[in-house]
Amino acid sequence: MATTNLSLQVRRRARLRYQLKQKSVGRPRLSVFRSGKHIYAQIIDDAQGITVAAASSLDKDLKAALKTGADKDAASAVGKLIAERSKAAGVLAVVFDRGSYLYHGRVKALAEAAREGGLDF
Q: Could you say which of 3.40.50.620, 3.30.870.10, 2.60.40.1120, 3.30.420.100 is the CATH number of the domain covering 5-116?
């Protein structure tokens, strides 16, 4: 019986979310989603069920400055923007939720830029 990539992706995401819930200690979650054309990041407070801050490569100021929304440069720009917006919202410490993506390429570039921007994770 062959398993599909989708079911493996769902299992990987569920496993990571369980681990994050155990280690988060009340911190909000920095969630990353990447598509073929863009990358998105949002800081979610799971205790209250709200999104504290969000940024994506579709934001007007970023979209004009970027060549494409699907490369490492776009990811690092989104990482800096999410760090800036989270600091404005009063959030300095988060847990990094990479979803089912490997910590490599665009996801890694976003995380490193967010750390440089002042987020602690």
A: 3.30.420.100
Rounded Cα distance, 37 and 50, in Å: 26
Write the single-letter amino acid at 93. Answer: A
Would you say the pTM of this structure is higher than 0.85? yes
Contact 119/83 with Cβ under 8 angstroms? yes
Range list of β-strands (E), the chain:
29-34, 39-45, 50-56, 95-97
User: Do 84 and 100 form a contact (C-beta atoms < 8 A)?
Assistant: no
Cβ neighbourhood burial of 46 (10 Å; 0-12, 13-18, 19+): middle
- DSSP assignment of 57-79 equals TTSHHHHHH-S-SSSHHHHHHHH
Q: What is the mean pLDDT of each run of 10 residues along the chain (121 residues)?
A: 75 91 90 97 95 97 93 97 97 95 97 97 92
